[in-house]
Amino acid sequence: MDVALLDKDNALVSWMESTKDEAEIKVLKVHKDGTKSKPITIANISAARASGFPQLELVNGIIYVAWTDLNGETTSIKIKSVDSTIFI
Asked: In angstroms, how far apart are the furthest CA atoms of the chain?
């Protein structure tokens, strides 16, 4: 799980949610009054512990999510960017 502030009233929250054979990285916006946006799925990833914890950053209105991608014995870092205006 990770959190990034959008502004003084809103934050983005990311988490991993297990499915049958893998996990999904999800993100949603939470307002200070507790209301939440509909979550979006950023990526499907390995549910193995070696995939670590996805990192969330907001830079100039762009949400960046980075995670460790597992492919057999090989690992790599994957990054996906999403415009934060999708949560308006």
From this structure: 44
Average pLDDT, the chain: 88
| CA–CA distance, 59 with 78 (Å, rounded to integer) | 17
For 22-47, letters b (16+ CB in 10 Å) and e give ebbbbbebbeeeeeebeeeebbebbb
Q: In Å, what is the CA distance from 38 to each residue of 21, 27, 30, 43, 58?
A: 23, 9, 10, 16, 18
User: How far is Cα of residue 33 from the mean position of the Cα atoms in its chain?
Assistant: 21
Q: What residue type is assigned to position 80 of the chain?
A: K
20 Cβ contact list (under 8 Å, min separation 6): none
Q: Is the pTM of this model over 0.85?
A: no
Q: What is the pLDDT of residues 50-59, one digit of tens each?
A: 667 889 999 9
